[in-house]
């Protein structure tokens, strides 16, 4: 479980054995979470940085009329609120989508960890930049793609992100998103999502059954939505550490 976090950060920096040991020590405070459990409410004081060790969560914003938009998914190995901790309060909510395991880190411990450890500092910078890059891609996806390619792109992204941290995906992977949550992530109505999923199923592009997603031919699905994983920045880390 801890390996997912280290695998992800290793895409951003060439971590030494000492760096990895330091990061492992940061994850000593863990707790089990339930599905649909609110971890952070918009406006809360940020006292902990969250690391998703197992399970899925999401970042979201609510409108005054109760409509919700999911702005990002937090998957195994992802870290949340590193930058938000500098602001003092959360400008979005974080809610689990499945049961899971999270680690909670005092922001002061992260500040201490990066002192004299340029590899860790670069890894955390990369993590924040990757999150920004994903947000930009979501803006393009939800603002310009039609419904079926929009959902296909999100499925391709999730599969790529899971595979990058060592989650087996060849025979499928858990899919905890309910239809209304998929809609909130894609900026569509649940009815529109239902119709678009049916299109993808009928074309043999996905198999979705009992909260399990299988993509029989990833290249065909990627071609439908012009998915290119470059924006995930999952190339091997550069040997030279930025200072």
UniProtKB/TrEMBL annotation:
The UniProt record lists the keyword Nucleotide-binding: no
Record key words, sorted: DNA-binding, Transcription, Transcription regulation
GO molecular function, one term: DNA binding
One Pfam family linked to the record: cNMP_binding
Source species, domain of life: Bacteria
Keyword Membrane among UniProt keywords: no
Domain HTH crp-type: 145-219
GO annotation terms (biological process): regulation of DNA-templated transcription
Protein name: Cyclic nucleotide-binding protein
Species of the source: Methylobacterium radiotolerans (strain ATCC 27329 / DSM 1819 / JCM 2831 / NBRC 15690 / NCIMB 10815 / 0-1)
């Amino acid at each position: 479980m801890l390996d997912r976090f280290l695998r992800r950060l290793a895409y951003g920096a060439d971590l030494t054995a000492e760096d990895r040991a330091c990061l492992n020590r940061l994850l000593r405070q863990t707790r089990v979470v339930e599905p649909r459990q609110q971890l952070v409410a918009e406006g809360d004081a940020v006292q902990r940085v969250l690391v998703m060790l197992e399970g899925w969560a999401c970042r979201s914003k609510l409108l005054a009329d109760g409509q919700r938009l999911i702005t990002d998914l937090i998957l195994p190995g992802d870290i949340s609120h590193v930058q938000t901790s500098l602001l003092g309060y959360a400008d979005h909510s974080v809610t689990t989508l499945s049961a899971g395991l999270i680690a909670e880190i005092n922001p002061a411990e992260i500040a201490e960890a990066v002192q004299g450890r340029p590899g860790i500092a670069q890894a955390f910078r990369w993590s924040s930049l990757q999150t920004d890059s994903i947000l930009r891609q979501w803006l393009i996806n939800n603002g310009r793609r039609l419904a079926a390619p929009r959902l296909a792109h999100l499925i391709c992204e999730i599969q790529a992100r899971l595979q990058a941290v060592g989650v087996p995906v060849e025979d499928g992977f858990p899919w905890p998103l309910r239809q209304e949550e998929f809609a909130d992530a894609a900026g569509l109505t649940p009815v529109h999502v239902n119709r678009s999923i049916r299109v993808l199923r009928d074309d043999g592009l996905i198999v979705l059954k009992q909260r399990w997603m299988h993509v029989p031919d990833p290249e065909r699905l990627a071609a439908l939505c012009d998915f290119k994983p470059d924006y995930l920045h999952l190339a091997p880390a550069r040997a030279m550490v930025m200072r």
